[in-house]
UniProtKB/TrEMBL annotation:
It comes from the Bacteria. GO terms for cellular component: plasma membrane. InterPro entries: LipidA_mod_glycosyltrf_83, RgtA/B/C-like. The chain crosses the membrane at residues 6-25, 74-94, 106-124, 154-183, 195-214, 250-270, 282-305, 311-329, 336-355. One of its GO terms (biological process) is lipopolysaccharide biosynthetic process. This is Dolichyl-phosphate-mannose-protein mannosyltransferase. It comes from Algoriphagus aquaeductus. Pfam families: PMT_2. Keywords: Cell membrane, Glycosyltransferase, Membrane, Transferase, Transmembrane, Transmembrane helix.
């Protein structure tokens, strides 16, 4: 058996091991759904062409998986685990095709699996999950389309891009990346008609969202504009300190997302690509560089979440892979140690806490900091469900001031109620588009308020009486994380939400 086939087997062994660990991770009883995952699950119970902030793909995938596996954490997280497994395999194939080398393919797939942004995007089911998957497929198809000079691959690339747009609107950045690549390589003229065809097919992915936004006061458009730094308020004075804080946080976050271990290799690979003027290297690195630079500019005006540019970093793995094969001496040893440490940390995080081996020491402290937003919701949902069942009569209305808590309650209560949100000063969200607390005014029945940050909903609601209240602490291991407030009210007399134009 030759050495090249050994690299193939080793890659698939690592890829499959990570997949198994993610399935085990989804089954850890002490870790609940991340609040955004719970929200997207609730969207799947209310299927639509578009939602307040995102396209429908995440809801559709959750609908399909929960229809097969039930409303469980595994049903939600099997999607990113499986798409991550496929994505690594696609990048392995991409690198192998370009360089005709199983070893280069191995390093492309292994680097992809080892970088932190891959762990985040393909462990927790968010809109980044499917969009990143379709980005990888579409950019690979774009490469094959240029290479084949035929229309079939351009059509396929367009369809894949449309699916990416149906996952997250950031997918549209494939257009400037593709156009700039064709321009810089002086191949725009010969591919222009096909690029137009690709663009037309891709933009079909926006049609459901455009129609929905016309019907819903352009909520998504206004939300995205707000995230981009647009504001309807008065202009704020320029603040150098704030600018530096936003930009330094962005830069630090991006370094963490691609792994500080890889920084020396990026320097070597960029220097080599600059000297050789390699078009393939340009194709692989251009999306990540453009996206990184674009969000860097945006960080001058607004805060950027660490995951936003990460979808375009996938082909960095293919870009770095041939360099990894060429390394010798100390750099080769550093390469191997870096990969082992990076994959080891990911495996350590994913591995279950059998026999409480992670329940003390630095591992416990690290997990406590990392997972504190995923603790205590299942116990809270069970307690609220018990109160609901004990009240009898018509089902009480479950509500919170936080859509995060409302989403978790809908998932972890066995009855899976359609929870409500009262606005006590938060920005608009999906609940503003669903029937809300205003239609419950005059309802003489019971209402259960659940919150992790508020003592009472009385600043925006008026009930005839409070029947019951309690606090429920939640823990990570034996360490207290916080407590939740539960109140049972009767007969909603008034609801006066905080009026906000914030998106």
């Amino acid at each position: 058996m030759n050495n090249q086939s050994t690299y193939t087997r080793l890659f698939w062994l690592i890829n499959f091991t990570i997949l198994v660990l993610k399935v085990l991770f989804a089954s850890r009883p002490e870790l609940d759904l991340f609040t955004e995952e719970a929200q997207y699950w609730l969207w799947s119970r209310n299927l639509d062409w578009q939602y307040y902030s995102k396209p429908p793909m995440v809801a559709v995938l959750n609908f399909l998986s929960t229809s097969l596996l039930g409303h469980t954490e595994l049903a939600i997280r099997i999607i990113p685990a499986f798409l991550g497994f496929l994505s690594a395999g696609i990048l392995f194939s991409f690198a192998r095709k370009i360089h005709q080398s199983e070893e280069v393919g191995f390093w492309a797939g292994a680097i992809f699996l080892a970088i932190p942004i891959t762990f985040l995007g393909f462990t927790f089911h968010t809109t980044d999950t499917s969009m990143s998957f379709f980005w990888i497929l579409a950019w690979y198809a774009f490469y094959l389309a240029i290479d084949s000079h035929g229309r079939k691959m351009w059509v396929i690339a367009g369809l894949l891009t449309a699916l990416g747009i149906l996952s997250k609107s950031t997918m549209l950045l494939i257009f400037p990346a593709g156009f700039i690549y064709l321009f810089l390589t002086k191949s725009l003229k010969e591919n222009f008609s096909n690029f137009l065809l690709f663009s037309f097919i891709s933009l079909l992915g926006f049609i459901p969202g455009i129609i929905w936004n016309f019907q819903n006061d352009f909520y998504t458009v206004r939300h995205i504009a707000t995230l981009g730094g647009a504001s309807s308020g008065e202009a704020q004075p320029f603040d150098w300190g704030l600018l530096m804080a936003r930009t330094s946080e962005y830069l630090g976050g991006q370094l963490a997302m691609v792994s500080v271990f890889l920084l020396p290799f990026f320097g070597m690979a960029f220097r080599k690509a600059w000297k050789t003027k390699d078009h393939v290297a340009l194709f692989l690195v251009l999306p990540g560089v453009l996206t990184f630079t674009g969000f860097l500019g945006l960080s001058f005006t607004t805060w950027i979440l660490v995951n936003w540019p990460g979808f375009a970093y996938s082909t960095f793995a293919v870009f770095l892979a041939p360099l990894m094969v060429e390394l010798a001496g100390g750099w080769k040893k550093y390469r191997n140690i870096s990969l082992i440490i990076s994959l080891g940390i990911i495996a350590l995080v994913l591995f279950p806490n059998y026999a409480n081996w992670k329940s003390s020491g630095p591992i416990f402290s690290g997990e406590k900091a990392l997972f504190k937003r995923m603790i205590g919701y299942e116990e809270l949902g069970e307690r609220v469900q018990h109160l609901l069942d004990s009240l009898g009569g018509d089902s009480p209305i479950i509500f919170s001031e936080s859509y995060h808590t409302a989403s978790e309650m809908a998932f972890y209560m066995s009855s899976h109620p359609q929870t409500l949100v009262v606005n006590m000063g938060s920005r608009k969200n999906q609940w503003d588009l669903w029937p809300g607390m205003d239609v419950q005014v005059g309802n003489p029945g019971r209402f259960i308020f659940v919150s992790r940050s508020k003592e009472s909903p009385e600043s925006v609601t008026k009930f005839s009486r409070l029947i019951h209240e309690e606090t429920l602490p939640f823990y990570f291991g034996s360490d207290s994380i916080g407590q939740s407030k539960i109140q049972v009210w009767e007969h909603l007399l008034e609801y006066q939400p905080v009026q906000t134009d914030s998106f």
